[in-house]
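Slide 14.
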Amino acid sequence: MFKYTRRRFLQASLAAAPLMALTPTVPLFVARVARAGAKAIPGRILVVVELVGGNDGINTVVPYADEGYAKYRRSLRLPRDQLVRLDDQIGLHPALKPLAAVWEAGHLAIVQGVSYPNPSRSHFVSRGVWHTARRDFGREPGIGWLGRGLDEAIDRLAPAVFVGDAVVPVALRGRRRSCVSLGRPEDCRLLAEVPSGGPAALVPSVGPQGDDLLAYAQRAAVDAAGAADLFARTGLAAGGPRYPATPLGRRFQVVARAIKAGLSASTYYLTQGDGDVGAGSYDTHAGQLSVHAGLLAELAEGWVSLLSDLRTSRLEERVALMAFSEFGRRVEENASGGTDHGTAGPVLLAGGSIRGGLIGPTPRLIDLEGGDLKGAVDFRQVYATVLEHWLGVPAKVALGGSFDALPLFRVVP
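Slide 15: predicted structure.
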């Protein structure tokens, strides 16, 4: 009760103070925008979309010419003539047709067979590994790969923003950063002290202690109040191009408006699947065809709307989009018209600075390991490339080791 009351007191006190009166305690990413009158600030931006539940990569990036596809996918096999063909072996799910033009322009990269050593089929374990970039993520709980990376560049790289109604993902949580969380453009919230299901968090689960903890909470409170004030002053909640009337579409719209308004954030993080595993997620154990098609259509339409919006605003070169899921699905479909938990799957990246194409060997459906695809690319290679070649952040500390980069970007720092 004490924490809740104190949080409410902070919110009320900050709400009564005008934004500019809070400087110099107002964080740079808010104060700089306010002074600039919503003028866009140069800098690279990463937009991460987590496909919650375990996306069926085989029916996303479809190896239609592989003899194992017809063998293992009977009711779930997608008609070859409906696929978005990438070459004479591979095509995209028909619901991803909006991305065809992005592929043709050379701005869509597909990293194939992405996994990690000794992969887990548990949602909890695998999400923990992807969020922290640590197989033993329990040794440093609550600290994520992006949080560590942004901590390393705290003096020169803007913070992260979570766009959604769930708890802030562990991936964004660091020891020195607060993370602004948005559900709607006009809504910026502080952490509610509940274990799950409540408003999104600003404060990481591990942070400074003693007096430093109070200072951290004050900075987080100012971040939230300042960002909400910014959105109100810039009219961020209305106007602009039309986006799909879906939860993910609305979140992409928030991202676009924030970027165009000049919010100096280095990273935006979104989840598709309501931030939890279950109904509405990629956990398609039964009746997969229609559910999967709907989710992929929502993703593709949102991505294309965002890219088009940024292109019109001449910002497309500054933004890189990445979509991943905690694991793929089993190669063989089950008796319920779905697929069970698997291992490797694709990671998709798009944007004006992306070097398009297929990256990594295409997994073979007749050369399996315990009924699962063999992993070919460690997901930390993707992370290392994004951190070092896009955000300009040393990746070794964030990832707990060195990993070979991938040819994902046209220009690197």
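Speaker note: The first strand starts at residue 45 and ends at 51.
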